[in-house]
């Protein structure tokens, strides 16, 4: 267990994510997903231990599709806070939950000492491209969830951003408005969906920056298989940049070459966004450490 000094919570649990995103050095963070069984949990902890060495600003644990892994998410997030030096960012979605249930989950996070929450509407359960319908006693939008969490105690709240336009959104203007609304509700930082095109990230960031001081960190995932990138594109409803697809397709019959190109593409993307002033990089790890560490090292951070 982490040493809980003084009478307060250990420093890594109360560390301010917004302050780290405004620091001169780029903030590196990692995203994991909750394991489905004990073997997957062992793999997750192996990855966490290897990635802990590069001292990320924070790490997050996602909800499974439709909130299915909520209990494991809460448990793993709490365990990260207790057993590592890492600052955990807890995910919370509106999917399939009443306001009373949402308050209960926030209470569980608070009881584990977790004080940073990423407030998301979440995807429709079963079919991420399906029609969104809120829980009858729940919330309809992420800005409502931000307000709820902020009203429940001393939490720092982050939100999601969609550089390639949210699947339910008519256009970029609407996405900018939504982010501004989330900031008005009390969000202090945003993390984007996976970025495959630096220009879309920079456009969204600049449009929001003209109106609000909201650090927006791009999400980055080194692609290690052609099938994976196709699936990600479908899930996000986002077309992939043709140049990137061509580079991966050119080596698709050689898994090692695909992986090498995926790491190279992610490194180039990350470098460009950092050079253009991104506050950091949020690595979507898929619970593995090697490709992520290669990109991290390639960025020379």
Describe this structure in words.
- The protein is α/β, with parallel strands linked by helices and 301 residues long.
- It has a single domain (11-298), classed as TIM Barrel (Alpha-Beta Barrel).
- It has twelve helices and eight strands.
- Strands 1-2-3-4-5-6-7-8 form an eight-stranded parallel β-barrel, surrounded by five helices.
- Strand 5 (156-161), helix 7 and strand 6 form a beta-alpha-beta unit.
- The protein is globular.
How many helices in DSSP terms?
A: 12
Largest sheet: 8 strands, parallel, barrel
* Cα Rg: 18 Å
Determine the fraction of residues in helical runs and give it as a percent range: 40-55%
Strands in their spatial order, largest beta sheet = 1-2-3-4-5-6-7-8
SS strand fraction? 5-15%
Q: Would you identify the regions where 5 or more consecutive residues have pLDDT less than 50?
A: 1-7
Cα distance, first to last residue?
A: 29 Å
Indicate the overall shape: globular
Tell me the number of strands. Answer: 8
Helix-and-strand structural type: alpha/beta
CATH topology: TIM Barrel
List SSEs in N-to-C order.
HHEHEHEHEHEHEHEHHHEH
The overall pLDDT average reads: 88
Q: What's the level 1 CATH class? A: Alpha Beta
By CATH, the architecture is named Alpha-Beta Barrel
Count of all domains: 1
Topology, please?
Elements: H1 11-14, H2 17-21, E1 27-32, H3 38-52, E2 58-61, H4 70-83, E3 88-93, H5 99-111, E4 116-120, H6 142-151, E5 156-161, H7 172-185, E6 189-194, H8 198-209, E7 216-220, H9 226-236, H10 242-249, H11 255-275, E8 280-284, H12 290-298
Parallel strand pairs: 1-2, 1-8, 2-3, 3-4, 4-5, 5-6, 6-7, 7-8
